[in-house]
Fold:
Amino acid sequence: MPGTFNISEELKKLPDKPGVYIMHDADDAVLYVGKAVVLKNRVRQYFQAGYKRSPKIEKMVSHIARFEYIVTDSETEALVLECNLIKEYRPPYNTMLTDDKAYPFIRISVSEEYPRIFLAHKLKRDGAKYFGPYTSRGAVKDAIKLTQRLYHVRSCGRRLPQDIGKARPCLNYHLGLCKAPCQGYISQEEYAQSIKKALDFLNGNYAPVRREAKEKMLEASEKLDFEGAAAWRDLIKGISALEECQKISDVGGDDRDIIALALDQPTEADAEAAGAGGVGESRDAIAQIFFVRDGKLIGRDHFHLRVADFESAEREHLISTVIKQYYAGTPFLPHEILIEKMPEDAELLQKWLGEKAGRKVALTVPERGDKAKLLKLAGENARIILSRNKEQIKREEARTSGALRELAGLLGIPQIVRTEAYDISNISGFLSVGSMVVFENGKPKKNDYRKFRIKTVEGPNDYASLYEVITRRFSHGLTERNSAEQTSFSAFPDLVMMDGGKGQVKMAEDALAALGLDIPVCGMVKDDNHRTRGLYFRGAEVPIDKKSEVFNLITRVQDEAHRFAIEYHRSLRGKGQVHSILDDIDGIGPARRKALMRTFGTVEAMKEASLADLLAIPEINKPAAIKVYAFFHDGEIPEE
Structure:
C-alpha cells in the first residue's frame, strides 16, 4: 500500500468514532500505536501545519507513509486495545509497558465447589474464568463489588466445604455482599445458581439486571425513598461502566478469529435481474477478520471480494468462501472461529479445519454476550472500510492477490497463496547468512521471516549456502508436520523464489528433491544494473510486462529478501560478531588491519592492490606487505 496511500485524502475519510490508529513507515513497519476519543480529530492533528509537537513526534511524522485504524465501541476499549497492539508490535515511538499489571482481570475460580471472585494480575491456565482486562485496579474492585452486591459471590480464602462452621462469618456477610456459605446459610446448589448468574452477567448479559434496577429505582422514587432510588441509580451507572470494559478473556478457549462481512447494497437492476432469474451486476464486499490471542484482541486483516452475481451474495455462501480461501494458506488455526451465519457446508468445513489443525476447530454464531459484541465490532469496521476505502482496497487487491493470480497463470501453477523467497549475504565468504521472507496473499508476513547462520559452508559459496538453508528449513518443517507442536515452519509454500537465476534455482530444486518434496521453484533474475529483470522457471526465462502488477510484486519480494539478509548481516557486524578476513593473515594485527582498511576502504580494493601500493602504507613493512599480497593471490609471491 505504501506509494498508493494519499494521506490528505485518507484524512477526510476518518470516522467520528473512538478507536485505535496505527502509523506505518514506507517499509510498512509499525511506527506508533495510539488511541483516540474521536479518530477524525486526533489523527488529523499529526498532519496539521503549525500544530505544536515534540521533536520525537515530529521525527515520527516525517516517516509516516500510511495509517490505519480500528473502530471500537468506547474510549475504554480503545485504551485496552492500544495496550495489546503496543505489546504485539513494539513500535519504536511508543513508550513500552513491561507487563499486564496496569490492566488487571476479574477471576472466578469455577473449579472450586464454592467458587470465589477476586482481582488477578495475569491470565493463568488454572481452570478459572477470567474477565477483562480492565483499565485499573479501581475498575476491577468496582466490578467485583457490583457482582457481589447482585449475586453474593464470596471472596474470602476459606476452604469450603472443609471449613464450614469453623469460624464466624466475615464482614461481607453483614454488608450484604455474601450469604455466608462458610456457615451453611446457603446450599451448594443455591450458590451454584448464583455463580451461574454472575458468570452470565460478566459475560455481558446486562439487560435483565438493568431493567430490574430501573424498575426498582422508579418504585423507590414514587414512594419518596430518595436514598433507595439513588442507590439503584448508582447501580445502573455501575452496570454501564462495566459494559464499556474490554471483552471476556477465557483461557479455556483463548485463541479465536472473528469474521464479519460488509456487502454493497444491491441496486434495483440487481434485484430485478435476480427476481427474473437473471444475473445482476457484480458487487463489492469486505471480509474483516479480528485476531484474538491469549484472550486479547491483537490485530485484524481485511480482504476485498468481488461478488459475481446477486444470488451468490448470500452471507452463508460468502462466509464459506472466505473460510476456505483464507485458512487454506494460513498455518495457524484458532480453537474457535466466530461468524455471522452458519454456512450449509459448516460440518464439512469444521472437519477440514480440524484435520489441518490436528484438533477441533469450532465454527460458532454468537447470539449475545461479548463474543457477539466482538462480531458486531468487526462488522462495523468492515462497513467503514467498504464505504470509505473501496477503490483503495481494489487497488490493493490488484497489487497483491490479483498479482498472484496473474503469476500463477504465467507459471502454470493452479494457485499461489504463500510464497517464500531466499537470499544469501556475506563479506568475502565470511559470516555467511541466509534470509527467508514470506508473503501470503501478496503481503509480507513478517512473523514468519527466518534468519539462518550458515554452518556447513566455508568461503564465498552462495550455491552451497542456499542448499544448506533450503535443506534446514524444509527438514525442520517435515519434522514439525509429524509432531504435535507446529509453528510457521510446518506451512509449506506454493512457490519458492530464489534471488538469482539458473544456478540458485537448481540448488533449491536439488535440496527439495533430496527431501522428497515437489514445490515449484523460480529465480528472480536481475539485469546488469542490479534491477529486477524477470523470472527463471523450468529452464527458461518467463517474459513479464514491466508495467504489470505481477512484475511489481516480484520486485517487492526480491527487494525484501535482499533487505532482510543485509539487515541481519549488518546487525551481526554491529555487535562485533563479524570475522574479518584480515584476521587470517599471519602478522597482521589490529594496527595494520586498521591502516589497510583506512587506505583501501574495502577488501575488494585490497585484492587489486600491488605490492608497491601496500608498501606505501607507513604501518606496513615489506614482510607484512608480501603476506597480504600472497593471501589475496593464492600464495603467489610478488616479484621484487
